[in-house]
Amino acid sequence: MRLEGIHHVSSITGDAQANVDFYAGMLGLRLVKKTVNQDDPTVYHLFYGDDAGSPGLDLTFFEYPGARPGQAGQGMIHRIVLRVPSEAALDFWSGRLKGMRESATSFLFSDPEGLGLELRVVDVADAPLVAHHPEIPAAFAIQGFEEVRAYTADPERSRQLFEAALGFERDGGMSWSVRGDKRGGRYLFDPAPAERGVPGAGTVHHVAWASQDSDQVAWRERVIAEGAHPTPVIDRYWFKSVYFREPSGVLFEVATMGPGFAVDEDPAHLGERLVLPPRFEQLRDQLELTLTPIHAPTPARR
Ligand code: ZN
Q: How far is the CA of 193 from the centre of ligand 1 (A)?
């Protein structure tokens, strides 16, 4: 039983339209599901990914309109690393985005609300997860998650849960590989800053690890055996979820690979309309009045 890398990463935005403009318009990801937060259906939950909405490249955002800016600190993820295939791709992105070329293989940047992002050239056999976009040559497109980096003052206290329960393989220092049959990713700790973390716009809410559908209950039992306190299995409609906090404070989720975003929409038209899980359908009229209107991204300014 192995986790298939990073399933999705969920973060907070205060401005849904600016979020669409950046992730769909600038980064060229596809908005694959426009729905509401199932724990608070008055706010959006937006999902961006490859054309198929695959686990392995799924950046999701809860919109709290006007949310104050947050700041990553102890027990929070502070950077999401995305794969690109070549240095030529990094050259393209360094011309398109404001950021810093950290090395020949790494480009650091932030989203409009300060969420830390990195594009990294990675040589890996995992199938590329690509969204097609008119301004982005397919050969340069983002290909999936590589890593998330979190802050902690004491990585040792998380190690037992990672290695004994979740099958993370330490690859030196404070970094672990998480690899299944088809995909892999990495989890890395950096020393926590002195300032306290503040949840808010531009911060990560949780990271989800991808589970084979039939393994999820066993993962839940394994983390209980190592002292974590997971939620019951929650049906998120497009996948099933179990949440728990790892000992350094980062909220983890183990999410099933299936059934996926095409279960209730035509795969050719994912994300074009507000989709509600059946139990929220009765709220549609109200939600269509109160949710921030969003439209397809405006073409990038040059
Ligand atoms: Zn999640």
A: 26
